[in-house]
Amino acid sequence: MRRIIFEASAALVAVKLCLNEGNLFAKDRSEVKQNILSRDKIVPSRKQQEEKMSGSNSKNPFDVLVIGGGATGSGVALDAASRGLRVGLVEREDFSSGTSSRSTKLLHGGVRYLEKAFFNLDYGQLKLVFHALEERNRVIQNAPHICRALPTMTPCYSWFEVVYYWAGLKVYDLVAGSGTLRLSRYYPAQKAVSVFPTLAKECNGRKLRGAVVYCDGQMDDSRLNIGLACTAALAGAAVLNHVEVVSLLKDEISGRVIGARVRDNLTEKEFDVYAKVIINAAGPFCDFLRKMADSSAANIISPSSGAHLVLPDYFTPEDMGLLIPKTKDGRLVFVLPWRGKTLAGTTDSSTTITDLPQPQSEEIDFILHAIEDYLNIKVRNSDILSTWSGIRPLAIDPSAKDTASISRDHLVHVDCPGLITVSGGKWTTYRSMAEDAVNAAIKHGELNPLRRCATADLAIVGAEGWKPSAFVELAQSYVRRKQTRDGKVVPGALGTSIAKHLSCAYGSMATQVASIAQEEDLGKRLAHDYPYLEAEVAYCARNEYCETAIDFVARRTRLAFLDVNAATHALPRVIEILAIEHGWDKGRQKVEHQAAEVFLRTFKPGVTDLVPQKQGK
């Protein structure tokens, strides 16, 4: 009897401890959110971040220094800062300037991985799908203004394909469980064509038998990345773009990596940054950084490229994508509506690592021919508005016996004392990659976080208080005042298209952009037929660490990716506004224009090898 009473008491104490711990965790999480998500809170200035970064020393180091400002690096900075650690982050170019702005814009579990899991009886692949689907929903939940659910159609030109794809995508629904965005469904041929009018009724002599529609997530990758970096800054991290690692600092006695010598590429100023642990999140350039610490380190990155091109909007419906499952070489091709245009792309081509990867002409031809087989309208080279390529850093575990096996999962590896590398994975799983990397840093560096990981349901800046109908309030409450060529200021309606764009790009912070357009006479469009406003240039310079013209046309807005000619047209006005915001002289404006023109030429179809490539991170 005593034993029963004792065990019951012990169980009660355990329950109370769990409840108390849960309450403390909820309180910690609430404090983090309150600190980050005040709408009026402004990110620290670049000068303040530089002072914070250069103020570290061997006796007062950061807990963590993150190298690389892509999705993973920015996610690591946010995770570590939200746990109460002292965090610095440096990025050689701009946040999301590499792979993280050049994705297919999908948040997905991986239909291909699920297929391989069943055919190869590979439980590891199945775990990847389970995990990615869970993370997909977290990303959408934490950034609902930037992400959306996107139905995607898989056309079937035989009854076998109908059964095969229907069954496979029903399993995809089953794996997603309660996290299913929308259940997959079969459309007869007539309905499929009515929903997707450009879909071919016949392909390679076979008649359309219907289509299976499933649902995954879609996002604006660089806007999400910028949001992560700014949220990390609001959480207390010192984040600096355009700051390059020159060398790693080591303790002379132990050989432990204790920091980095960095150079601000905007001012050419160099200084040392000290940290207890360095996290290498340099994406495709991870190996260059690893070799700074150990010149004999074996490469762990196996680069894989994805080529993409942008077409006018009439190739796809506004809310339905197309998955082409069978191509000549077995790769998938996606044809997706994105930001008012059509995005077509494929992945998994072998490549070399360069700063500005460009799709080769044969890759563009491959995509065009694949699309033409499944559409009832001709796709011409002259339809292409922009092209780009991204490098996915697939990782090989250096501790694995079989180094020929390339993992689709992410890798967290202690390279040497003081240096941890995180690589592999994909955009969808950036948050869990960051969590694993910070956990490894805490263990390796014996760090003392104030809180546990809180990023599973931590909204990024702009997400708190946002709702899908927020654009209506913008359209009703603001006008955009713009200057005419003769210097007069005239008011104009914000309009639905502009209001929707601002709401989806900036979330609850869109009111600040609209206010600038109204109060500072910066309401003019930057390019005809596009919703981007002059006010966005000023807002991004003040609140999103937009330091160059390229930062704006490529990553704060997506104009370079959507229409390279429109971006070129907008460039002079973008530079003019940035010059006012940053105090540039005529010389700096000229340099900005030249650099941006060279950069934009890499987005023109059929133009390759225009930019001399430098390597390293």
How would you explain this protein's 3D organization?
The protein is of the alpha+beta class and 617 residues long. The chain is 40% helix and 22% strand. The chain contains 19 helices and 21 strands. The protein has helices spanning 2-36, 46-54, 71-82, 111-119, 123-142, 159-176, 189-195, 221-234, 286-293, 361-374, 430-445, 470-477, 496-506, 510-519, 534-543, 549-556, 559-562, 564-582, 586-601, and strands spanning 62-67, 87-91, 106-107, 147-156, 185-187, 202-203, 206-207, 210-219, 238-241, 243-250, 257-264, 270-280, 301-311, 321-324, 333-338, 341-350, 386-395, 410-416, 419-424, 479-483, 489-493. Strands 3, 4, 5, 8, 13, 14, 15, 16 and 17 form a 9-stranded mixed β-sheet that branches. Strands 1, 2, 9, 10, 11, 12, 18 and 19 form an 8-stranded mixed β-sheet that branches. Strands 6-7 form a two-stranded antiparallel ribbon. A hairpin with a 2-residue loop joins strand 6 and strand 7 (206-207). The radius of gyration is 25 Å and the shape is globular.
Q: What's a quick, concise take on this entry?
A:
The protein is 40% helix and 22% strand.
